[in-house]
Amino acid sequence: MRRTIFRATAVVVFSIAAAAAGAYAQQPPADATPAIAKVDAPAGQASSPSLQQRYPRYIIQREDSLLLTFPVSTELNQTVTVQPDGFINLQVAGSLHVQGMTVPEVTQAIQQAYGHILHNPIINVDLADFQKPMFTVSGQVGKPGQYELRSDLTVAEALAVAGGMVMTSAKTQVYLFHRTSHDWYEVKRVNLKEILRGKKLDEDAMVQPGDMIYVPEKFITNFRKYVPYSATTGTFVQPN
């Protein structure tokens, strides 16, 4: 329904193709399952990804609709839509930036906004309409693009939805990008060839909303497990 939040993910995968042209020696990671991994981050960014929440709350996005109800002051009840700049307009309380917040955070911010008008305001905030979960598939697939995540899908199933892979050799290298925090992606390599043979089926990861699957044209022997969300060319491939 909305594609603006995925533009940055597309930049990541399409910019790394040129960086993958060289051959690099395989270097196994020091720790196979780190909770936090440090990488060389661009200037101005955090030096390491933060811990991923086990049950992350939905993040308010542009064009989401919020139902605001005031049990005591019902005349202030309203439904608001998050504008392209991330603001909502409140009755008699001005504008409030809510993009990037969770519903509990929005509730607290609205209570503060009405604090100078109402005494101890009681406000309920509900999502009336929100972004449908999506995932992106790019690279060497039949139908690259963005797809709605309507049910539980594994990486193999998601690739089938995207028309399958156009290069047989690519089956050994499929990359799943999963956003672990506001600033970082976790990158997981999936050997689809083994999975289709009935081996290592537990490695066929479940696709989550906002995930990106990338099938590279050229073989990549070494890559970074964590990359910044605003990644630039070369941050996915790990040179010697």
Automatic annotation (TrEMBL):
- The chain positions of domain Polysaccharide export protein N-terminal read 55-127
Query: What's one GO BP annotation on this UniProt entry?
Result: monoatomic ion transport
Q: What is an example of a Pfam family matching this protein?
A: Poly_export
* Keyword annotations of the record: Cell outer membrane, Ion transport, Lipoprotein, Membrane, Palmitate, Polysaccharide transport, Porin, Signal, Sugar transport, Transmembrane, Transmembrane beta strand, Transport
| Keyword check for Membrane | yes
Where does the secretion signal sit in this chain?
Answer: 1-25
Recorded GO molecular functions are: polysaccharide transmembrane transporter activity; porin activity
The SLBB domain extends over: 135-215
Q: How does it sit in the membrane?
A: Multi-pass membrane protein
Entry superkingdom: Bacteria
Q: Where in the cell is it found?
A: Cell outer membrane
Q: Does the keyword Repeat apply?
A: no
Where do the coiled-coil regions begin and end? none
The principal localisation class reads membrane
GO cellular component term, pick one: cell outer membrane
- Family affiliation: Belongs to the BexD/CtrA/VexA family.
What protein does this entry describe? Polysaccharide export outer membrane protein
